[in-house]
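Entry for zinc ion complex. Fields follow.
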Amino acid sequence: MSQMLHRDPECLFCKIVAGDIPSNKVYEDELCYAFYDIDPQAPIHFLVIPKTHIGSVAEVIEGPAPYTAESALSSPITTGNAAVVGHIFAVIAQLCKDLGLESYRVVSNIGDQAGQSVKHLHFHVLGGRDMTWPPG
Ligand code: 5GP
Ligand code: ZN
């Protein structure tokens, strides 16, 4: 199954998924990898990413249903990849339950103006402190 992963050799988060750069793992399965942010903005701050390289939410597209693990792992260029996002949200819900977090924020920055610094789809999960709205 791992040969189905679309990997960008220049991408920091692809290197983290591959284990070429160390990270503090929260969880992993066939489709996604969760790890603590190196520069936490809350008492709990981890990232959940697809193992396959998808640039951002802007590259998420629907593919043929029913979704399979295989289609979710494929390159965004060749087939749909939306299934992995649904899976990631289920993983986030379970991880936050496990961590005892009842209230938390999920954020995904898309593009430079929104502050996306790593161009591999990731969902920030932040919790453990009061938060303000709107974000800056
Ligand atoms: P973005 O700014 O793209 O929304 O979020 C990227 C996040 O990745 C930032 O919160 C940043 O602290 C985190 N980050 C950048 N490099 C690394 C790294 O090497 N390891 C870990 N664990 N997090 C990183
Ligand atoms: Zn990547």
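NOTE: The mean pLDDT is 91.
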